[in-house]
Amino acid sequence: MKRFWFSVLLAACAGGVLGQGIDYNILCSLQERRTTTMDQTMRWVSNSLILAPMVPATLALGGWIGNNDELLHSSGQMGASLLATGGITLGLKYGVKRLRPYQKYPDDLISVTQEPDPSFPSGHTSFAFSTAVSMCLQYPRWYVVAPSLIWASAVGFSRLYLGVHFPSDVLTGMLIGSLSACITYQIEQQRLSQKSIPQPKVMLPAIRVVF
After folding, report:
1. What's the rounded Cα separation, in Å, for the pair 148 and 139?
2. What is the mean pLDDT of residues 107-128?
């Protein structure tokens, strides 16, 4: 857990440095390449974050209907990862209070949409990667891993294209979501392994009675 917080702190420091240079240049480059069609597409991709809570909810429903413990455990791990991701993301957002790109550089950067909360880190990205990495860990098959990671990456890119986040916001969101998924998955696996260990039976001493 200490490594997790150290990684988040390191990303936060890196974000503060990158925001003055590389972050700005990347957003300027993307802004010059916007089109009406891409604007609409990136809005749709960004709004697809609704899938994040729907995935564990669907698994939980399927597990409950089918009496499938595996699905229930999977949904529980994903839900725990999303909760952890949300707590860390909100804590950093209102702790760092970083301005959005279009707020920090109002004369140079124009956003397609606007957001009311602080910029760092990207909540959309952190929730998307929390869900995607959880899916990869629970179901490590190429036809699950590839679409999951492509979707999460697309959500992160959409936040850059729309001009509502710096690249360092998105990178930190990727880190938070991915590590939250890995840690909660490891905790869930340890819990299940301990639960599956047979408990020692209570043996009563044999008493020999002689008449």
Report:
1. 11
2. 93
